[in-house]
Amino acid sequence: MNGAVPVNETVEAVARAHRDEWARLVGSLARRFGNLDVAEEAAAEAFATAVARWPTDGVPRNPAAWLTTTAQRKAVDRLRRENQRDARHREARMLHDDTPPEPLGLVDDDRLRLIFTCCHPALAMPSRVALTLRLVGGLTVPEIARAFLSQESAIGQRITRAKAKIKAARIPYRVPSADDLPARLSGVLAVLYLVFNEGYLASGPGTDPVRQDLTAEAVRLARLVRELLPDDGEVAGLLALMLLTEARREARVEGGELVTLDEQDRTRWDAALTAEGHRLVRERLVAAAAGTAPGRYQVLAAINAVHTSARDVRDTDWSQVVALYDQLARLDPSPVVALNRAIAVAELDGPEVALALVEHLGSDLDDYHPYHAARADLLRRLCRDAEARAAYDRAIGLTGNTAESAALTRRRDTLR
Asked: What residue intervals traverse the membrane (predicted)?
């Protein structure tokens, strides 16, 4: 130990250790015991012990080792208290087994095993999100409930059922094999992207329109996956996409209204995040030139790189944006991609051409508020005010984001 330290320094040390070591600790305990409940509770007890002891004993020279030893003891104590059967006692003795563990996948890392376990396709997507935020991100159940505007009891039950399903289905704690990795990794990235998007444009009327806590956590987890899989292009692409989007956060809401990209004060964008995102995109462009075809997240990141490279919206290379959307449409031929491409076409070929493209998407996107918002904007630019007003009304009725609703209402009210 280093000796007693001021309380505020201890709090910072525990918070830093929690941020850096929580996922690694839970993952290593889960691997040893094969039980997520034991892993989670032992890890939580270890951090609670740190909060109680570090102010007087001092912060350990190696906090990670201290937490690991403490958590392992807590896990053994729990098994003993519960008067476990012989099989459970064997699990406890695994703590003292010096035999190297059998390789469990393509990458031998407890955190990565934990991520793939939490994001297993056997679990429903809401369960994957909640379990990932709890066990990998270290968020509490109340924090997750607030993030997604759910009851704490519902989130708790969702996590409990997910852990029970993992146990009942004997879902292994391992990274998938090389053959299975691409398909399974896509599910992990989808979970992180979902978390980020909920923070980027919060869907609930009773919460902040932009949730920095969620976007920051998604970026942190994406960095973790990037650290563990540094050569994967889609991991790099998703991180770049998040960084380039997060860089614009300070300019996205003004006076309670969402500020669209073309109206944002670009001097308020975070230069460091923008530079990092651009660097990742450039790395992927080099890989593409060498024959590695980019995936969906890489193309989305490239589109954002074009937008954030322009000092003024008038300097945007719209022809390149449209070309990238053409590339994205080949990877993801969805109506949403077609809608975003049409918005870019409006800047290149005019609103009338774009509106014709948008109108074809109505049957697929009638309940999707960005469709009606885009259509309203195109109609406004064509001076078709009555139709634009009706489209704005429909978009306002569908959006749950307060800042976006305020911006759409203002635009509607400027019509004649």
From this structure: none
